[in-house]
Design goal:
The chain has about 475 residues and is mostly helical. About 85% of the residues lie in helices and about 0% in strands.
């Protein structure tokens, strides 16, 4: 996530709006095609690894999955080669030079993700994180170097990513060969079929989520132009990074506890824990949303230069929906615990198509602000469905009073931060100073009004 905060200020300044918009679309296309191309193999590896480990047959599992990905990747590259000349003679000829690069990036990304999934499946978190850090920061460094020295375009950025991923693939191939995991002659097509049968529905689920998260950018490009995609992508990507930075650690900490409690305790205890978790999640997300919205203009300017400052007006429309969606991992646990993932997939798919439909209706009338409105409406509808059905499965309590208190305090904090003028002539100093004032105000207010939180803080300080 930090890599995104590092790369955005660089890329938005060295690429013009059109190229940044194309870069966003290229990376999204690679993500979309990769979701289908990987056929859920990383998830399948995690699911079947314990079973094959007991039989000392991990090389068979790994090699079967790897051979399947190599075959599907080769077919995908061949199709890209055939499509390139056809696209060059079509109305979309300006994109013909990007097709092969997207295909290569998709294949390398899928293969790297597959290798790294082994570390996650074997609970080797340190090694996994080291590879991820090397991949992300190596990609940023290589992309910046190529763009500055040779290729100032979206393709230059993609070339840097492909170069780093190819080097990493070569290294990982050597590492796993020495671990004797790669024995393609021992691969089994029956194992491959089991992996595909398990993983392919998960891939379609990822594609459905993609329609909610990024389908609007393709509609914007089709109905307006890549410049508009860039203007929309900057605030959207910033909001996504903020949401992920907060909710991702929460998901990693809370979801395993819910699964364990469901297995070893009664449903009432699980529901009570979900209710407490909801209260704490909302206590944090509400002030973050109001605070980020209050400082959206200087933050967007700092992160993406003043040519994107006007785009900050979309943050109050985009961020609430994303933060609301970020809390949905809790009601989603109800679907998972009751093995209703098929129903969950249908809801996600329906909301993805609903998002596309809203964009088609609102973009002609409101421009890219219509896409921001569509995002807000989609995430609200998505959350209402998930919370309603998730409540049926888990019977948790909605934290209405704590949320109302947080909303009132966060609104007052927003008014306070907005009323503060320029503190200094340095943009980052202004942002930090106003943020500190907002944090002090909200923290003092919530501790004064929320008795339960005050008790929790007192218990924590006593233990310390």
């Amino acid at each position: 996530m930090l890599a995104g905060f590092v790369s955005m200020p660089i890329m938005t300044r060295i690429l013009d709006k059109s190229e940044y918009g194309k870069l966003s679309l290229v990376l999204l296309t690679a993500t979309l095609s990769g979701s289908l191309l990987q056929m859920g193999m990383p998830q399948g590896l995690t699911r079947f690894l314990p079973e094959f480990s007991r039989r000392d047959e991990v090389p068979i599992l790994f090699s079967s999955a790897l051979r399947t990905l190599l075959v599907s990747g080769s077919v995908f590259l061949a199709l890209a080669l055939l499509l390139t000349p056809l696209l060059a003679r079509s109305p979309f000829s300006s994109w013909s030079g990007h097709v092969l690069w997207v295909a290569v990036l998709t294949v390398t990304h899928v293969l790297v993700a597959f290798f790294l999934a082994v570390y996650r499946s074997e609970h080797q978190s340190f090694q996994y994180n080291c590879w991820q850090v090397a991949l992300r920061y190596g990609s940023v460094a290589a992309s910046v170097a190529i763009v500055l020295l040779a290729w100032r375009s979206a393709i230059g950025v993609v070339a840097g990513k492909v170069l780093v991923e190819l080097l990493m693939l070569a290294t990982l191939f050597v590492v796993f060969s020495r671990r004797r995991y790669i024995k393609l002659h021992g691969a089994s097509w029956d194992v491959s079929k089991d992996l595909v049968r398990y993983g392919l529905p998960l891939s379609f689920g990822l594609i459905s989520s993609f329609l909610i998260e990024s389908g609007d950018k393709f509609v914007i490009n089709a109905m307006i132009d890549p410049d508009a995609v860039a203007s929309y992508s900057v605030p959207y990507d910033l909001c996504t990074q903020v949401e992920s930075a907060i909710t991702a650690p929460m998901r990693l900490a809370i979801v395993p506890v819910i699964m364990s409690m469901w297995a070893h305790e009664d449903p009432e205890a699980t529901a009570a824990f979900v209710s407490r978790s909801l209260r704490n999640v909302w206590r944090l997300l509400v002030p973050v949303g109001f605070g980020f919205a209050a400082l959206s203009a200087p933050i967007v300017t700092l992160m993406a230069s003043d040519k994107y400052t006007d785009s900050s007006a979309m943050v109050p429309l985009i961020l609430p929906g994303l933060l609301l969606g970020g809390t949905c991992f809790l009601p989603i646990c109800g679907f998972t615990l009751h093995k209703k993932t098929g129903r969950l997939a249908l809801i996600v798919l329906a909301m993805g198509l609903f998002n596309i439909l809203l964009n088609l209706i609102l973009l002609p009338r409101y421009g890219i602000h219509g896409a921001a409105i569509a995002t807000l409406i989609t995430y609200v509808a998505h959350a209402v469905l998930l919370y309603s059905i998730g409540f049926y499965y888990l019977r948790f309590k909605l934290p209405l009073r704590p949320v109302a208190v947080s909303f009132v305090l966060a609104l007052l904090m927003w008014l306070l931060v907005r009323s503060i003028g320029e503190v200094s002539g340095i943009l980052i100093v202004d942002i930090l100073a106003r943020t500190l004032i907002g944090v002090i105000f909200y923290t003092a207010g919530i501790l004064a009004l929320d008795r339960e939180l005050r008790t929790l803080v007192g218990q924590w300080t006593t233990r310390r």
